Amino acid sequence: MAMSRFHEEPYDAGTLTKLKIFELYAQAWIPVFVSQPEPPFREVHIYDLFCGPGTDSVGMPGSPLRILAQLRDYQKAGKAGWSKVKIVAHLSDEDEAKVAQLAETLKASEWQIPGVQIETKAITFRDALDLHKNVLTNPRAAKLLIIDQFGVDEVTDDVFKRLIIFPTADFIFFLSSSTLHRFRDHPAIKIKIDKPENSYDVHRAAFDWFQKLAPPSVFLGRFSIQKRSNIYGLIFGSQHPLGIHKFLQVAWSNDEIAGEANFDIERENISPGEMMLPMQEFRPKKIQVFEADLEAALRGGRMRSEADLVHFCIAAGMTCQHATPVLQKLKSEGLLQCKFRTPDARRTREPRPIQLISL
Ligand SMILES: C[S@@+](CC[C@H](N)C(=O)[O-])C[C@H]1O[C@@H](n2cnc3c(N)ncnc32)[C@H](O)[C@@H]1O
Questions:
Q1: Does residue 229 have a pLDDT over 50?
Q2: What pTM was computed for the model?
Q3: What is the CATH number of domain 285-356?
Q4: Cβ(227) – ligand 1 distance below 6 Å
Q5: Is the pLDDT of residue 224 over 60?
């Protein structure tokens, strides 16, 4: 499909998976900043910088309406922090007609959300980054950036380097197959990919590429989406363990085999939702390897606190819930003591200790 006609057709299954991930992440992100009676930030800004007109050709909601729907639902939950925070949704796209169509849709009463300021603007992604520079670089404002670019690679290395230093900002960007092919042909990456036609490895290689551009203090995550024979990718970034942990929870809720794709990325010849055995009996390879590694690290005394555990899980692309069975096993063997069943990604600054008992 020609890119200019993208919104004149129904979204395909791969696009719907992508939109679901954006929406689920927004759903997990919003409460962190507006649920507490004393919210951590006085300003919350959500940016959808490739927002499109709001729907596809058959009225299926796109990213801006999904983000707003999450804000609307959370406002209705009536949490104490909501009214204490300035909440702004910045919806922009370079296409004036699409922005005008979205603005028209948003006049309906269902989109008048108390406490939410909605700003629509026809502007390119790069100009928007410059326009919003003051907020994006303000450490006292929480930000979420949804970057749903087309096949053109708007997130260049330089743009990526800007994104990762915005303080208190989480971002998700889409990588299309044309961008992935650029990675495939990159000399530094080509060497490491045995079969360059293998799209699975290309997305991993693209992720590794961005990982090398980021300092260790930045947490990155990925999710691969198969659209017919093409592989597309989402790359997530955050400077906070809680941000990446929430992304991993969303990823695992979409892929209970490996937490990283809407297809069988680990070559176990099964796809999420197609399993013969219930999850308790089927142990995906990635989970087995993680559990064995974690058990060895705990037995070896390398995990001293809850924070060590959280970082171990994140580095393996696992959620903190995945550590629970191993902790339970070693506790029941009398090998270790700790006051939690599951490590909490919100407690990395005040972690609870883990004590290894020598028998
Ligand atoms: C994949 S579509 C986004 C779809 C949208 N998120 C949705 O859910 O319907 C990409 C959008 O990016 C816009 N676009 C393309 N290049 C752009 C740029 N440089 N800056 C801003 N918007 C751009 C296009 O007009 C198009 O609406």
A1: yes
A2: 0.91
A3: 1.10.10
A4: no
A5: yes
Q: Is 93 in the pocket of ligand 1 (CB under 6 A)?
A: yes
- CATH code 1.10.10 region(s) in the chain: 285-356
Assess contact for 114 and 75: CB atoms under 8 A.
yes
> According to the model, what pLDDT value does residue 336 have?
95
pLDDT at 244: 96
Residue 302: pLDDT above 90? yes
Q: If you take atom 1 of ligand 1, which residue's CA is the nearest one?
A: 150
Q: How far away, in angstroms, is 94 Cα from ligand 1 center?
A: 7
Tell me which residue of 306, 261, 249 sits closest to 32, measured CA to CA. 249
Question: Does any ligand 1 atom lie closer than 6 A to the CB of residue 23?
Answer: no
Q: Distance (Å, rounded) from C-alpha 252 to C-alpha 318? A: 8
The superfamily in CATH containing domain 3-254 is Vaccinia Virus protein VP39 (3.40.50.150)
Q: What is the pLDDT of residue 284?
A: 78
pLDDT bucket at 173, cuts 50 / 70 / 90: very high
144-167: burial string, b at 16+ Cβ within 10 Å, e else: bbbbbbeeebbbeeebbeebbebe
Point out the ligand 1 atom lying closest to the alpha carbon of residue 64: 8
Q: Is 219 touching ligand 1 by the criterion CB < 6 Å?
A: no
Every domain range in the chain assigned CATH 3.40.50.150: 3-254
